[in-house]
Design goal:
The chain is mostly helical. The protein has two domains: 144 residues, no CATH class; 161 residues. It contains eight helices and no strands.
Amino acid sequence: MLRSLKWFSVLTTLVMTGVLIGGALVTKTGSELGCGRTWPLCNGKWVPTEITPELIVELAHRLVSGSAGLLVLGLAIWAWKAIGHKRETKLLAILSVSFLLLQALIGAAAVMWPQTDFVLALHFGISLISFATVFLLTLLIFEVDQKFDTKTLIIDGRMKFHIIGVTLYSYAVVYTGALVRHTESSLVCKDWPFCNNSAFSLPANLYEWIQMGHRLAAGLIFIWIGYITILAIKHYKHQKVMYWGWIIAFIIVTLQVIAGAVVVLTGLNIYVALAHAFFIACLFALLSYFVMLLTRNNLTKDVQKVTK
């Protein structure tokens, strides 16, 4: 039964990845209104007759999102019954369903009623949390075998500060990236890392401010995660989850920065742009796992104090 649950959780996580990438594809191809201003119908019909590329992209995203909804609900119920004894299971089960529902409602509202770019940018952030909760639930299921050293993990105060800080900051970076897409600011600066080969001049308009603000935010998180990785390598060699976790995090954030640069230099290549969205999703999910480990670490310390 547990083996089947593992396979089901992996399938659900993959479909949720498809939802996340599909949402980015909808935005990047300008297919938000591919089905008009009707939802869940497409151009007011269950089976549309006038087929366009934008309609195909939008309708496919809706179908994948609907499938994900059923899978997430099934995973939440199954995990609740099978590993409900684990401390985080029930909360993650509730959050996974709740945020997926919220994501769908925000997407529907964006279709039916015009929204500002600053509001639309929130949609990707909600999608990211929805993906992260399913990812964490999947990790919980795989942790049942106790092949990870999470129970003996001890996190010091400095690492605790960095985990919480960089996770919250990563969400701000995500928002600035979504804002770049929704305000169509991706190519206002056609060079990298500076805007139009100008290293010392300030951005000339709002769109350049949004683009360069995102680049600055991405640069800072790259440096921050690089520093944390150095700390992990120095002080957490015997704790594999933290040691390898931060090395993986640094690899992902490096790939994210490279993809962001290539997006600009290739004139918004769609495949690279989708990879950029995928990397930030993986990074946020991994950082969320560190936060979950942090809550366990605090609980372990409390138990140790009581037993002394």
